[in-house]
Design brief:
about 230 residues, alpha/beta, Rossmann fold, 6-stranded parallel β-sheet, 9 helices, 6 strands, globular, HAD-SF_hydro_IA, PGP-like_dom2
Length: about 230
């Protein structure tokens, strides 16, 4: 009998399980260029890390004075992204190992992401992660995206788990805030190292300031085991 029997683990997708931000940046750059906004920079993209695609393009309309509707921008950006994601999306090796460790112990897992259902499905299928991660919630399926807790609470509901028994893995401040608002513990693995001092990250039960460079499957598993024993 595993010491993790009462536990469920919820994963953010982009920047946490997979390094999809370069594809999201390129999809955003292409979309904005098509709508008359050249030279969208990586630094500008970083402000949207952890924010849902719908909320991102909604902000673009105001920030850049775009005439296209949110739905049109969503369709174009998702189209570019899906093409890029299907061609190449890299899974963080230690995250894959962590998923496999948890799967071997029968720990219930879910993905809770700000991406569209189509994008999540394409990435999980293309990387083979769908073999272990079958419960998926997109921010498009709930009233509010992160930092609201809706995606994590819905993921817990689908797993039949108590939020207090859930641990979230997140890379971005809005996601850590969402986990905290959901009453869940969070392992934070910042994608943007400079954001590790953001106040939202202080709410994480475990903050790995070095991001993916500091994350190991074995270390995370040992932390979960210690936490379970202390509960």
């Amino acid at each position: 009998m595993s010491t993790l029997d009462a536990l469920s683990v919820l994963f953010d997708l982009d920047g946490t399980l997979v390094d999809s931000e370069p594809n999201y940046y390129e999809a955003g750059r292409l979309t904005l260029a098509e709508h008359g906004v050249p030279d969208f920079s990586w630094a500008e993209h970083e402000r949207y890390v952890g924010i849902s695609t719908r909320e991102t393009v909604t902000d673009w309309r105001e920030r850049y004075g775009l005439r296209a509707s949110v739905e049109d921008l969503l369709e174009v950006k998702n189209g570019h992204y899906l093409r890029l994601a299907r061609a190449s999306t890299r899974v963080y090796p230690e995250m894959r190992r962590f998923v496999e460790l948890l799967a071997a112990e029968g720990v219930p897992m879910a993905v809770a992401s700000g991406s569209s259902p189509e994008a999540i499905g394409a990435i999980l299928a293309g990387t083979g992660l769908d073999a272990h991660l079958r419960t998926v919630v997109s921010a498009e399926e709930v009233p509010r995206g992160k930092p609201a807790p809706d995606v994590f609470l819905e993921a817990a509901r689908r797993l039949g788990a108590d939020p207090a028994d859930c641990v979230v893995l997140e890379d971005a401040a809005p996601g850590v805030a969402a986990a905290h608002a959901a009453g869940m513990r969070c392992i934070a693995v910042p994608y943007v190292a400079a954001q590790a001092d953001a106040p939202e990250f202080a709410a994480a039960a475990l903050l790995l300031r070095g991001g993916q460079r500091e994350f190991t499957a074995r270390g995370a598993h040992e932390w979960l085991t210690r936490s379970a024993r202390a509960a």
